[in-house]
Amino acid sequence: MQEPLLGAEGLDYDTFPEAPASPEERTRAGALQNKKVFLATFAAVLGNFSFGYALVYTSPVIPVLKNSSTPELHLNEIQASWFGSVFTLGAAAGGLSAMVLNDLLGRKLSIMFSAIPSATGYALMASAYGLWMLLLGRTLTGFAGGLTAACIPVYVSEISPPGVRGALGATPQLMAVFGSLSLYALGLLLPWRWLAVAGEGPVLIMVLLLSFMPNSPRFLLSRGRDEEALQALTWLRPAYADVHWEFEQIQDSVRRQSSQMSWAEARDPRMYRPIIIAVLMRFLQQLTGITPILVYLQTIFDSTSVLLPSQHDAAIVGAVRLLSVLIAAVTMDLAGRKVLLYVSASTMFVANLTLGLYIHFDARPLTHNSTVGLETASLGPTDPPAAHFSYITLVPLLATMLFIMGYAMGWGPITWLLMSEVLPLRARGVASGLCVLASWLTAFVLTYYFLGVVKVFGLQVPFFFFAAICLLSLLFTGCCVPETKGRSLEQIEAFFHTGRRARH
Questions:
Q1: From the CB of residue 468, how many other CB atoms can be counted at a distance below 10 Å?
Q2: Are 301 and 62 in contact (CB under 8 A)?
Q3: Nearest to 162 by CA among 337, 326, 324, 42
Q4: Nearest CA to 51 among 101, 97, 118?
């Protein structure tokens, strides 16, 4: 790697040069009226709903199983750590498989294929009579999540017009959040086995709807199926849109990159620069602490003695997360990607630092809950929480809500969107799988060791670490992340090749 990560000499890497609106950009209003592209997006992102649902499945289930009277299902601290973290190993394997399936089967069929491990995993957990069934079911749902995490953003970005690609690109994260919120809400009503049964429904609906949706026009063109690609693009656009102009742009881009990227070409800065940016964004996204916080959310609240019952706090946080992603979806194509990334990282920094300082300096002993497995060695003897009641006990809830809000407004949805926007077409299938692999291996390490670190060093230490990562994310955004608002995928790719927008 001879050249620096940043852009070409003499050019501003952070933005694209101003340009008159293209025919495609001028049809944004028409794109908003085209219900078919929204229907196709909805069908695909149901896979993200299942992903979000399965990710936080352990939040209400771990406390129940740690108190289980059935010896085969009773979890100790180590088993609880595996139950919480093995999902991420499955997701990493799903990311690896996406490196092959994304380009072999295509984006749509890869998403549909994820239904097999997902449905099987939920069935295993619903009927579990031993720990191995819980772990295997969790791994399979993780595999499905990792596969969809790599395929769905690519599919959505490739079927979306530039004018609404930001809003549609936020829908995978939006549906993942909605899935998590649904789990928290159902966790207040259903036993843990029925929570797994309920997870089967969205998987089946996703397969049914996707059966009637077109494949990505870019994928079809890369396989020489030009007529089918034109039909797909025509179906996805309004009747009055300039489909032939857009088709020619995509066809020209695919023709110039008709072969897969070789290892020799991977050393070309025009190839490795966007890949490195996408991978590092997924790496930093996980290091902010989002996965261990979500997986152990109810457990963390149990340990910090917040005012409301922990399961209610988890549901409140889920609702805040959903609202924040909705705000991001609306503003992403107006404010731009980088502004939201700055706001997001700053908000997460304040939230993590606040929570860490609260735990570190709070003189009021925290309630020790033996069913939870979180311990703070520096704290004194435990007293009943009612004896120390104060509104300051709301700080953990408010700080967590602030963290989730910050993440959901920027580093959550935008990281997924930018991954699908900046990756070169020739490397998009492999590189998206690499991004998911890096992301979930990082998540596994954080999730598996989270409880152990808390037991040895205290609950405040992970939050101080997460706060430091948020500062690093701010620096990375300013130095390395391009602004892609309002640009077609062809324009973005041309920028990494020449530093200039694509000509029309």
A1: 14
A2: no
A3: 337
A4: 118
Cα separation, 402 vs 36, whole angstroms? 35
CA gyration radius for the chain? Answer: 23
What is the structure's pLDDT at 300? 76
Residue 333 is assigned to a structural domain of this protein: yes
Which letter, b or e, does each residue of 280-313 get, where b requires 16 or more Cβ atoms within 10 Å of its Cβ?
A: bbbbbbbbbbbbbbbbbbbbbbbbbbbeeebbbb
Low-confidence ranges of the chain (pLDDT < 70): 1-34, 166, 256-270, 302-314, 329, 332-333, 335, 362-391, 420, 425-426, 428-429, 486, 488-490, 493, 495-504
Q: Look at residue 370 in the predicted model and tell me its pLDDT.
A: 38
In this structure, the number of other CB atoms found within 10 A of the CB of residue 205 comes to 14
Residue 417: Cβ-neighbour burial (10 angstroms; 0-12, 13-18, 19+): buried
Write phi, then psi, for 159 (nearest 5 degrees). Answer: -100, -5
If you search the block for the tokens 């029925």, which residue do you land on? 194
Measuring CA to CA, how many Å separate 480 from each of 222, 415, 418, 427, 474? 29, 13, 12, 20, 10
- At 23 the pLDDT is 46
User: Quick one: DSSP state of residue 53?
Assistant: H
Q: pLDDT for 237-279, tens place per residue? A: 877 777 888 888 888 877 766 555 555 665 666 677 888 888 8
Count structural domains, the chain: 1
Cβ pair 196, 57 in contact under 8 A: yes
- Is residue 269 in some structural domain? yes
**Residue 337 covered by a domain:** yes
Evaluate whether residue 504 is within a structural domain. Answer: no
CA 54 vs CA 57, 294, 426: distances in Å: 5, 11, 32
Which CATH number characterizes residue 279's domain?
1.20.1250.20
Q: Which residue has the tokens 């690896």?
A: 96
Residue with tokens 């790719």: 493
Which residues lie closer than 8 Å to 236 by C-beta, 6 or more apart?
34, 36, 37, 40, 159, 214, 217
Q: Which of 422, 419, 420, 430 is nearest to 491 (CA)?
A: 422
HSE toward the beta carbon, residue 223, CA cutoff 13 A: 17
Rounded CA-CA distance 357/28 in Å is 47
With contact defined as beta carbons under 8 Å apart, do 213 and 225 qualify?
no
Sign of the C-alpha dihedral computed for residues 87, 92, 95 and 100 taken in this order: negative
User: Which residue range forms the structural domain that includes residue 105?
Assistant: 25-498
**How would DSSP label each residue in 2-14?**
-S-SS--TTS-SS
User: Structure tokens of 240?
Assistant: 């009055």
The residue behind tokens 């979890």 is 75
CB 344 within 8 A of CB 424: no
